[in-house]
Amino acid sequence: MKAIVCERYGPPDTMSLRDIHQPMPQRKEVLVRIHAATVTTGDCEIRRFNIPFLFWIPLRLIMGITRPRPGIFGQEYAGRVETVGSDVQGFKKGDAVFGPTTMRLGAYAEFICLPEFYLTPFNPDRMTFEQAATIPTGGINGLHLIHKANIHHGDKVLINGAGGSIGTYALQFAKLLGAEISCVDKGPKLEMLLALGADKVIDYTKEDFTKNGEQYDVIVDIAGESSYSRCIKMLKRKGRYVLGNPSVTGMFRAIWTSWVTDKKVFFQLAKYTQSSRIYIRDQIETGTIVPFIDKRFTLEQVPEAHRYVDTGLKRGNVTIIVVPTHKV
Ligand SMILES: NC(=O)c1ccc[n+]([C@@H]2O[C@H](COP(=O)([O-])OP(=O)(O)OC[C@H]3O[C@@H](n4cnc5c(N)ncnc54)[C@H](OP(=O)(O)O)[C@@H]3O)[C@@H](O)[C@H]2O)c1
Questions:
Q1: Which atom number of ligand 1 is nearest to the Cα of residue 225?
Q2: Which of 44, 196, 219, 270 is deepest in the core (most CB within 10 A)?
Q3: Is the pLDDT of residue 304 over 90?
Q4: Is 278 domain-assigned?
């Protein structure tokens, strides 16, 4: 099969198209023919290996100490079941499925083998393969952050770093709950955020939102670049601060703030549960939520897609079309 293989941690040109052995499913695994995948900022961070200190050593042990092994990145996909292992009950050849690739990664390829409980079925007449591929990172993390924020109708919410994969989903979930939402990001992403339902947008390259004197019920911080203490001061009584990209010190301060003040700070990682995947799938299939797709690339163009995401211009999601729709 064809796959994009990364030789070493570094820039996008460390990745190239190769012919490698197609994987074979174990008894409880499903072999999926990938139709679409994504390039997320997280993928680029892994490729460059600019990983926060706390996670650097454990991730290097998992991903490969001197170079990535097996070196195929990509943390989410959608495709069709090709074959199933002897003990798989819930799927058959031809089923449309999507899911996270887990710590194995491997979505920049024509095929992937995964345990059946990581797969979620969907209806390709109601949701495209590329839309489905955006659910595990943007959708699950966006839903998780909004769930933690415990938003009530009319709450004043600020989402910092709203213009990317996670933020564009978080905005839409918060909107469903009736929040009044301010979004922080930059450039052309602001227009997209207004179209997705933001009530107000703030360009972080022109204005520091932590100094504008506003008070919020909830701050969801996906960018993780703002002053912790100023964000806490901007919260109303019983306000919630949700850290989507927490630093080690941020985690310790979160515990302390939640303990000694009437404000709550959350930093837990999302769980990629089947129930969350089904909930988001249903929202997209019924048209309630719309994944924002900025640009599409082919499998061969994955290095180019990484270069684009590295520019910081990505709005919402960037997808990789492995099997074009007219061939599906
Ligand atoms: N499974 C996962 O991949 C996962 C899970 C949880 C968290 N995370 C981490 O969470 C972060 C966000 O993920 P994502 O996929 O949503 O990334 P994304 O698509 O790049 O979105 C992040 C957005 O934040 C903006 N931003 C950067 N600096 C900012 C600042 N100082 N103020 C306001 N906005 C700013 C970025 O814009 P510019 O950079 O263009 O300025 C970008 O539009 C990443 O670091 C990622 O590693 C990843």
A1: 31
A2: 219
A3: yes
A4: no
